[in-house]
Write a structure and sequence with these properties.
This protein has helices at residues 24-33, 91-104, 121-142, 156-163, 199-207, 222-242; strands spanning 6-8, 19-21, 41-45, 50-58, 65-74, 83-87, 108-113, 149-150, 154-155, 169-177, 188-191, 212-214. By secondary structure, the chain is an alpha/beta fold. The chain folds into 2 domains: 6-74, Ribosomal Protein L25, Chain P (Beta Barrel); 83-242, 3-Layer(aba) Sandwich (Alpha/beta knot), CATH 3.40.1280.10. Strands 6, 7, 8, 9, 10, 11 and 12 form a 7-stranded parallel β-sheet that branches. A 5-stranded mixed β-sheet has the order 1-3-4-5-2. Helix 2 runs parallel beside helix 6 (222-242). The protein is elongated and about 60 Å long. The two termini are 32 Å apart.
């Protein structure tokens, strides 16, 4: 694709000749912010791995339309399903973590409601749609064709129940390096909020057989640990897949 401007569309047909109506948010961005005109080229992305080159045929802040001019197709295989459960942080830190997890290749981000979360359950739930919008905008910025799911906020107990006895990993400065773990690597990493997981939560995960992993030499901020840990886990899976 040669167009530099990525535009999000709903999942559906992106075949040559198709007319695609863009939603109001994307339309306003193209018409009012970027000041594009009919005839300008964009790249359409449905967030499910399909991208297509298109030409704008109608430009209005309330409704833009584009015509597909180059066939869409899957942009390779989807990334490995790596999941990060992150204790809910304050607004700026959580937004940053969402953005960078998208760029890193995380498949699912689970906001965790733990003892030291910086938002309560109701406030976190009300921010969920905002985090999903942040994730979608980050997808456009980094040219990632696969959207990252932002799950509903949930408790650690709910997460453990949903895992059905399968173990994940826990970011822990006192844990082992990821390279020292033997056997199949889990796909899920839990990162506590600022101040870390409470002792009760640490014991709960340890009792469930979740090993702690050290993410480097220094103690990281929670949002940094989520991104670094995700990158390390994805890289470790890729390395073992090549072995």
């Amino acid at each position: 694709m040669t167009a530099e401007r990525w535009v999000l569309t709903e999942e559906g047909s992106l075949e040559p000749g198709d007319r695609v109506v863009l939603d109001r948010l994307e339309s306003r961005h193209l018409a009012a912010t970027l000041r594009l005109h009919a005839g300008d080229r964009v790249t359409l992305c449905d967030g499910c791995g399909r991208v297509a080159e298109a030409v704008l045929v109608a430009v209005d802040p309330r409704r833009c339309e584009a015509e597909v001019v180059a066939g869409a197709g899957p942009a390779g295989e989807p990334p490995r399903r790596v999941v990060v459960g992150l204790g809910v942080l304050h607004s700026q830190a959580m937004d940053w973590a969402v953005q960078k997890c998208v760029e890193t290749g995380v498949a699912v981000l689970i906001p965790l409601l733990v003892e030291r979360s910086q938002l309560g359950a109701r406030a976190a739930e009300s921010r969920s749609d905002h985090w999903r919008r942040v994730a979608l905008q980050a997808l456009k910025q980094c040219r990632r064709p696969w959207r990252m799911e932002v799950a509903r906020p949930q408790t650690l107990e709910r997460l453990l129940a949903d895992m059905g006895g399968a173990a994940g990993l826990v970011a822990d400065p006192a844990g082992k390096p990821l390279s020292e773990l033997r056997g199949p690597l889990p796909d899920l990493l839990v990162v506590g909020p600022e101040g870390g997981l409470a002792p009760r939560e640490q014991h709960l995960l340890a009792a469930a057989g979740w090993p702690g992993v050290r993410l480097g030499r220094w103690v990281l901020r929670a949002e940094t640990a989520a991104v670094v840990g995700a990158a390390m886990l994805i890289a470790a899976h890729e390395e073992r897949g090549r072995a």
